[in-house]
Write a structure and sequence with these properties.
Mean pLDDT: 96
CATH class of the largest domain: Alpha Beta
CATH architecture of the largest domain: 3-Layer(aba) Sandwich
Strand content: 15-25%
Radius of gyration: 21 Å
Helix content: 25-40%
Distance between the termini: 28 Å
Oligomer: single chain
CATH topology of the largest domain: Cobalt-precorrin-4 Transmethylase, domain 1
Number of strands: 12
Structural class: alpha/beta
Length: about 300
């Protein structure tokens, strides 16, 4: 049995930056408390549980009206401008933890709209990154399942959500051009997403890919999809080592462990170490503590 760990995998720079920003806010005596996060800082429940244990409250937009004092942190995925304006109108403190890669996408959209392009935004419906973009900008949302859109301008550009598969982006571009559309490519898949997907695609002689990550994490979902769709490798998603109690791994000879960009290193390392030292010695039990999830 060979167990390998993909390189890279786990936390990207945007997730590290968001977590670091929140930890610094917790420790800064000059920041007005309590601290609130508008949604999940990143898509991983273990990280969010660890933040809750530090007296951080995770809220929805409806909760904003009930807040009288404190500081609200915006998540890594981006936030609708109307929500930001609401927070400012209530004179609440605001800290922006939006990923720089997501901000870059916003700037790209603004640039093309100013140049009179119709922006086709390839995204996942109801994902917070997509929700912020379709709220802030006049874009035409398309999805992997529905490429239809009303053509409004002669100049078209295809921009993607940061966490989609770069191979899916290329497939969509080819399909749209095959329909006769003249479209400019402005691929905005973030480098961390691309590198993690490429590590899976480049994996040789692997018969199972174990993807560690949260069910809400789109880049985690894409890793599972890429392994199956583009490398024809069986793949499963787990949140931590305990999920492997539901699988029989004895039939596999060469396993690759990878993880979404919001998966804590502690979880990845525990999965990898236990598979190496206690393969099929069930039941598996995680020994991690809440504070472990915020380390990198």
């Amino acid at each position: 049995m060979i167990i390998k760990k993909a390189n890279p995998c786990g936390f990207c720079s945007g997730v590290k930056g968001a977590i670091t920003k929140v930890i610094n806010l917790i420790e800064d005596p000059n920041i007005e408390k309590p601290l609130y996060i508008l949604g999940y800082l990143v898509h991983n429940r273990f990280i969010n549980d660890a933040l809750k244990a530090k007296d951080i409250k995770i809220i929805t937009e409806e909760d904003i009206f009930q807040i009288k004092k404190g500081t609200i942190v915006l998540t890594a995925h981006g936030t609708p401008n109307k929500t930001i304006d609401l927070i400012k109108s209530l004179n609440l403190n605001l800290v922006d933890a939006t990923c720089p890669k997501v901000k870059h996408i916003h700037k790209q959209i603004e640039k093309y709209l100013e140049d009179n392009y119709q922006v086709l935004f390839l995204g996942v419906k109801n994902h917070p990154e997509t929700n912020a973009i379709i709220s802030n900008y006049n874009v035409s949302l398309i999805t992997l399942d529905d490429l239809s859109f009303p053509k409004e301008k002669s100049k078209l550009v295809l921009i993607s959500q940061s966490t989609l598969s770069y191979l899916d982006y290329q497939d969509v571009y080819k399909k749209l051009t095959a329909l006769g559309h003249k479209i400019i490519e402005a691929e905005t898949i973030c480098n961390a997403t691309y590198e993690r997907q490429k590590a899976v695609i480049d994996a040789k002689d692997v018969d199972l890919v174990i993807v560690v990550g949260d069910p809400l994490s789109n880049n985690t979902k894409m890793l599972v999809l890429v392994a199956k769709k583009y490398n024809n490798i069986n793949s499963i998603r787990i949140e931590n080592i305990e999920d492997l109690n539901n699988y029989d791994l004895s039939k596999y000879k060469n396993i690759l462990v990878t993880a979404g960009a919001s998966t804590p290193s502690a979880i990845i390392n525990e999965v990898f170490d236990i598979l190496q030292t206690k393969f099929n010695q069930k039941p598996y039990k995680s020994l991690l503590k809440l504070e472990d999830y915020l380390k990198f």
